[in-house]
Structures are given as C-alpha cells and as structure tokens.
Amino acid sequence: MIITTTTTDHPTTELPEDPFTEGPSATRGSITVTGPLEPGFDHILTPEALEFVAALHDRFARIRCERLAARRERRARIAAGEMPHFLPETAGIREDANWRVAGAGPGLHDRRVEITGPTDRKMTINAMNSGAQVWLADHEDSLSPTWSNIIGGQINLRDAIRREIDFVSPEGKEYRLGDQTPTIVFRPRGWHLTERHLAYSQPGGSRGTVSASLVDAGLYLFHNARELIARGAGPYFYLPKLESHLEARLWNDVFSFAESRLGIEHGTIRATVLIETLPAAFEMDEILYELRDHCAGLNAGRWDYLFSVIKLFRDRGRAFVLPDRAQLTMTVPFMRAYTELLVQTCHRRGAHAIGGMSAFIPNRRDPEVTERAFAQVASDKQREANAGYDGTWVAHPDLVPIAREQFDAVLAGRVNQVERQRDDVRVIAADLLNFKIEDARITNAGIRANIRIAVRYLDSWLRGQGAAAIDNLMEDAATAEISRSQLWQWINQGLVSDEGRPIVRERVEYFIDKYADELAEEPGNRAADAAQLMKELVLGEEFPAFLTVPAYDRYLK
Ligand SMILES: CC(=O)SCCNC(=O)CCNC(=O)[C@H](O)C(C)(C)COP(=O)(O)OP(=O)(O)OC[C@H]1O[C@@H](n2cnc3c(N)ncnc32)[C@H](O)[C@@H]1OP(=O)(O)O
Ligand SMILES: O=CC(=O)O
Ligand SMILES: [Mg+2]
C-alpha cells in the first residue's frame, strides 16, 4: 500500500517511539474523588480504576486540550470566510483504494437495529430486553451527566454485562434480563466535556481538568474489557461529536494505550464514529484510516450534524440561515449528500454504515400518535436501508420491529450489506455545502416551538433526565442544540418571521418566561434555572459552543 501523505505516517506522533512504555519524564498524576460516594460507587471508583484513568490523563490530557484549541481555531477561520473543504494534505488516504478498517468485532456483524438510551437501571434492562441487535448505552446526548447518573450508569453497565442486574420499580414492577440480549456499544461523553467530581493532580501539586471522555471510557474499559471478551464480544464504543481525523487519532491512541495497559490484544476495542459535525463529513476517510485497527463503522448522527451546520455558519449571513426545524428533513440536499457519501465511504473501506434517529416516538396511551410514529419511522428506515445502510437507530423499544422489518426487506436474509458499493454516488464539497431548501420558511410557530422545546428540555436535563418526550418527539441534547442555536442565529441575523414579526430578544424572552411558567407547578421542576440558562444561551452576544458546558458548570447539581 502506498500512502502519499504526511499525516498517515504517524507512529502516533505525539508519543515516544514505543508509545506505551513510559519514559523517565512521564507525568504520574493521580485522580481523587471529590464527589459524594453513593452506595456501590466504591466498587467502580477503586484505587486501581482511578490509577488507570490517571494514566490516561498523564498521556492524553494535553493532546485533548490541543484538539479542542484546534476546533476553536477552525471555527474562527470559518467565521472569517473560509469554507470547510476536503484536506489537500490527506488526499493520499482518500485516493488509495487499498486500505480497509478492522470491521465488526465478535457480536457486531449484525447491527440491523440499535436501540439507544441512557444507562439508568430500568432502561438498561428494558434496552437489553428490547429485541434489538445492539444497545447503544449512552452517556452523551441522552444522559444528563449528574454524578449519580454517570457512576450509577457504570454500575448498571457492569451488572448488565455480567447478567447480574434486576430492578423493582416503586410501583412494584419487576425487571430482569431475558435470554437474548443485544451487543453493548457504549457512548462516552465527548471531548469538550469535563467531570468535576474527580480531580487530577500532577506531581508538584498542579491540578488539571478531568476529561469526561477519559473517565467514561477509562472506567468502562477497566471494569469490563476482559469480561466482555470472555463472553464472546468486546469493548465497543460509539465516539461522539468528532470534528477532525486528528481527534480520531487521539481516540485510536487512547485505545492502543488502554489495550497495552490492560493486557488485551491490540485491535480488540472497536469504535463506531458518529459523523455528526460538518467538518467530520469532509474527513470521513481520514477518520476511518486513523482508527483503522479499531474501527467498525460510521454513523450518520443527523441531529448534531444539523446543529454543527448552524453553529459553524451562525454569523455568516442569510445565505446560511436554515428554516424551521420541522423543514430540516433527511431529504434536503445537504443532508442527502452527507448520508449518501457516508455509505459510499464506509463500504469502500469494509466499515458498517449505521443510520440515525428519527425523532418520532410512539405513545402507548395514544394510538394515533403511535400510528404516525410507526409510519414516519418505517419510511425513514426504508430510505436508509435502500441507500445501503447496514442498520439503524431507534429511540424506543416499540420501534424495534418497525425498523427491523424495513431492514429485513432489503437485506433479504443477510445481516448487513457492507459488500454493496455505492459507486453511483458523486458527492462533491458543493453538495455538502448546498444549504438551499425549497420553500424555506421561518414561522412564528417554528420560533415558539424552538423556545418551548428548549426550555422544557433544559428543565428535564437539569432534573437529571437527558432524554424526554416533548410533544411526541424524542428530544435530547442534540435536538435541543438545534432549537437554541437557531434562535440565537435568527436574532443575531436580524430576521423577520414569514408572518412579518421581527425576531428580537424581547419577544423571545417573553416566550422563554411563558414556557418556563407552564412548568412552574410541576414538583421538582427546574423551570427558573432553565429559563435563566436559556436566556444566556439564546439572548447573549456570545454563543456557547455547547449548551451542556455552561449547564453542567453552573446549573447541574
Ligand atoms: C441525537 C441522538 O443522539 S439520538 C440518541 C439519544 N437519544 C436517546 O437515546 C433517546 C432514547 N429514548 C428515550 O430516552 C425514551 O424513549 C424517551 C425519554 C424519549 C421516552 O421515554 P418514556 O417517556 O419512558 O416512553 P414510554 O412511557 O412510552 O416508555 C415505555 C417503556 O419503554 C421504556 N423505554 C422507552 N424508551 C426506551 C429506550 N430507549 N431504552 C430502553 N427502554 C425504553 C420505558 O422505560 C418504559 O418502560 P416501562 O414500561 O417498563 O416503564
Ligand atoms: O447522536 C446522534 C445525533 O443525531 O446527534
Ligand atoms: Mg449526537
């Protein structure tokens, strides 16, 4: 194989020659627990596990900061007029037809339906009994990262993996695992997030930030990697919110280091990378390449992708303004282009292409809502299966058979269609950047819907629930990001709604208060904080890069 690029010749560049033999100058920091110890936490936060997480910090904390700085630099260049583009310096990787990724690990060949959801004890058991092939156990978009949820989630994962999990609800309903359970793929928090209930100290007393990604992935690997392998699967990850192939390289280095440290074979860990930012869509081949020893596939994370487009171009003028959220479907030109390119890229490299999440969810108490959700989800999954995807996500157990039916119809007895090449796809940069939408509208109803959804979602998140059914749609951190970033953009671009109403701070503020007031009677509500946070996110001059950052730093208890 001939690769004509400098970025590929990386003996994991930031590391010494034998990257996993610590040199005399290696930092030996330590991690201490500053959060409260709830029942069972001591079994997860053991001295050995904390030492492992500290070793990850010694090695990778600085590089993480560099990668985050690179995100800020790129965004500044885009604000100044640069457009995202395919990188000339990595053309060799894209043009070389000869390399492939490791592909699916044991238990991961059949990913027709993947149920996603947070790791609380009841939902863990429900997801494991859902009939899906995979459970995406989520510490990202659908999990509010309270200390209880984060370490409680690790307890539940440990117990689920060992089949030692049961639960009795306050109403007395009993939950236990059935015989057939899905392969678990764990999604740690993204590189931008920190964990404030742990402290990282370096020799000499200096303190460093604790990366939420390294905590989540580190604890999961430490407690479960060997057990998963012994049970015929492996430690598998979904990697969220990557913005470049260098971030993929960082993950790859983390995995290689962890494998070496835990004494498991190189390449045992498998990752599926979410392509959910616009810059990452320009680096899909490079991301696969960086992670090739550990990579199982890519996923089209549609909601964060939309958020990324809005965020990147928020101050670039009206040509970059997207219409009401309801009009941002998967068939608008830029979404179709990115999802088609993803399948083509994956299958060329032997990687799975996994579809995304339709936000329509059933309501067991309302047959009409359920019927509409089933129809919407069926059509979304039919489109994905026909496009060549190997599997897809669902948000709710009742959607598993609906999605499965669509994939089974196309796969006709096979468990994936990785061999199907989409040589017909011709996507160029202009297609990924074609933000024109026919009959685009920004309506008063669309503005109010964004405000209502975001306020309600923030209230839910601050109460510790990171996914919520709002008006029969699944809302999570990614969908709420779209709502709040659209509002910020529409205000700052001085837009007027289709009905002729200027979109101004005073009016948006009025509705924030109105929708927060609607929640004020609910027991345990966080409506006042949600309104305050929403005002910061939407009415401020500054645009916080992620809503979860100020929400976590200043509002989450
Ligand atoms: C942009 C992205 O990243 S998408 C991926 C991230 N988002 C998600 O994962 C969302 C996952 N989905 C959910 O969290 C939930 O479906 C919600 C919050 C949207 C709705 O949940 P509920 O209001 O509890 O729905 P509903 O009452 O219909 O649930 C019925 C049963 O199914 C269970 N259930 C619903 N969704 C899930 C799920 N995703 N996983 C496991 N169990 C589930 C509920 O726990 C409930 O169980 P019970 O009958 O034993 O009490
Ligand atoms: O994580 C998935 C998304 O759509 O965002
Ligand atoms: Mg996402």
TrEMBL record:
Q: Which GO terms describe its molecular function?
A: malate synthase activity
| Cellular component GO terms, alphabetical | cytoplasm
Q: Is Transferase among this UniProt entry's keywords? A: yes
Domain Malate synthase C-terminal positions: 442-554
- Name the keywords, alphabetized: Acyltransferase, Glyoxylate bypass, Transferase, Tricarboxylic acid cycle
- Ranges for domain Malate synthase N-terminal come to 32-91
Q: What family is this?
A: Belongs to the malate synthase family.
The record ties this protein, via PANTHER family, to:
MALATE SYNTHASE (PTHR42902), MALATE SYNTHASE 1-RELATED (PTHR42902:SF1)
Protein name as catalogued: Malate synthase
Source species taxonomy: Bacteria, Bacillati, Actinomycetota, Actinomycetes, Micrococcales
Q: Tell me the name of the encoding gene.
A: aceB
